[in-house]
Amino acid sequence: MNVPNTITMSRFVLIPLFLILYLNGDSVAALITVLLAGATDILDGYIARRSGQITITGIMLDPLADKLMMLAVVSALLLGGKIPWAAVAVMGFREIGMIASSAFFHFRGMKTVPANWLGKATTVVYYGAIMLLLLDQPGGLPILWTGIILSFLTSAIYFLKFRHLNQSDISGRA
Length: 174
What we know:
Blueprint: H1 3-23, H2 27-51, H3 56-79, H4 85-107, H5 117-134, H6 140-165, H7 167-173
Helix pairs in contact: 1-2, 1-3, 2-3, 2-5, 3-4, 4-6, 5-6
């Protein structure tokens, strides 16, 4: 396991830490944990690209860690009464769909699509919403809905890129 993948794996440990902190009423420490997870996301990607250590494992684990952290945060915010069920349902549907389809296609030997700038922008919007929601500041919910809309646009772009990237594999199997 290389350094970027080890950093990515650390994000999986931060998920239960976030939940423990948030559910025990320490929103600031929970927010710091989420921001630390975001920093490790930036760091592992930077190191992987800079040192030429991009791996299939990293391409799969990185978005999985991000999605699981986001699902944990959204679940906690729901339990805390800060976001409605509708937002959770829509986000959960999208995230679970992305995880399942990514795993399905990966195990079928198809190439996966790395993150693009719109996916990164969506993550920034989500982090902004999370900060506002965890700190009980106004505007968090409208920003969250903006992130949700962006996430579906991002998914559509990923699927188009995936289809294009794997077009010869898809045509050969038909």
